[in-house]
Amino acid sequence: MQSIVSDSYAVHFDTIAFEQLNSCLKSNNYSTIFILVDENTHELCLPRFMSEISGEYNFEIVEIESGEVNKTIDTCVGVWEALSELGADRKSLLINLGGGVLTDLGGFVASTFKRGIDFINVPTTLLSMVDASVGGKTGVDLGPLKNQVGVINQPVMVLIVSDFLETLEERQIVSGFAEMLKHGLIRNEDYWEALKKVGSLNELKNHILPSVELKNKIVLQDPTEQNIRKILNYGHTLGHAIESYFLENENKETLLHGEAIAIGMITEGYLSHKLTGLSKDQLKDIKDTFLKYYSKITFSDKDISDILELLKYDKKNSHGNINFVLLKKIGETQTDVIISPELFKEAFAYYME
């Protein structure tokens, strides 16, 4: 499978990924190579990863607890302290082996430790392969608020090994699938239609490369999210608020990222129908498709009010306005749309009806 090359790094797949990794380790003479894992990737992915290393190097394993709830500055402090105690210097390398939480946090740790050391991302979930693998966004949450602290900084390389998907439960696979469907919605109707026909994990693996290519093309045009890169936020304004609300509310079962974003894409699809021309038939197609894969959630009036209150913390806000990315039609977007508050409750009502 071909590699995807951006301005400053490349995404390598499967066999080529390990060839490129071994070449990188051989040529860079890193003082120490740290591998950041969680309890799941330590057990399920690290042995396979280490078996592909050729050469003798000084490795140190650092483990954090899995889950969005641990994507915090406190966890970063623990990793920074571990790096310091284990003698990391500016010629050290951090390899982040895990899902989006771990690669986001690990990238931020590497970007800030001693003002920046090299890091390599090895995403092990579908979500991290098609979303967190490209673009250089790193960071952590601030309480329940998503990705409030971070920097944009590129890894040395990204290694996508599709075999790691075999370690995931189905719920995690389906969560990642939401971001792939989003790529079709914002940029390529044919891709959207193709994904709707996927019937197995092996078929899904064949769509990882085009999904990464699609996101990479957008990021290359706008690395710091000043214009076109904003379209990747479709479904994420309401989706992130929903995810944060369920994360902080002890009476709610925590939603995975893709599960919350799926709700965001339906509700923001409704806003698109009302404001930017998305047809009724395409709106129905979006809703029907997501509800095929994601269980419907019931929201009380209080739930909705509390979720909407969280919108004021969205990273895309400017000058006191909450800015949405909406669809003109499947494959075509409009950015920086400001929504009248009364439409939000209509959107949730449409989702639940």
From TrEMBL:
SUPFAM superfamilies: Dehydroquinate synthase-like. Its cofactor is NAD(+); Co(2+). Pfam families: DHQ_synthase (PF01761), DHQS_C (PF24621). Its EC number is 4.2.3.4. CDD domains: DHQS. GO terms for molecular function: 3-dehydroquinate synthase activity. It comes from the Bacteria. Residues 62-174 form the 3-dehydroquinate synthase N-terminal domain. It is an enzyme of class 4 (lyase). PANTHER family: 3-DEHYDROQUINATE SYNTHASE. Catalyzes the conversion of 3-deoxy-D-arabino-heptulosonate 7-phosphate (DAHP) to dehydroquinate (DHQ). This is 3-dehydroquinate synthase. It comes from Maribacter cobaltidurans.
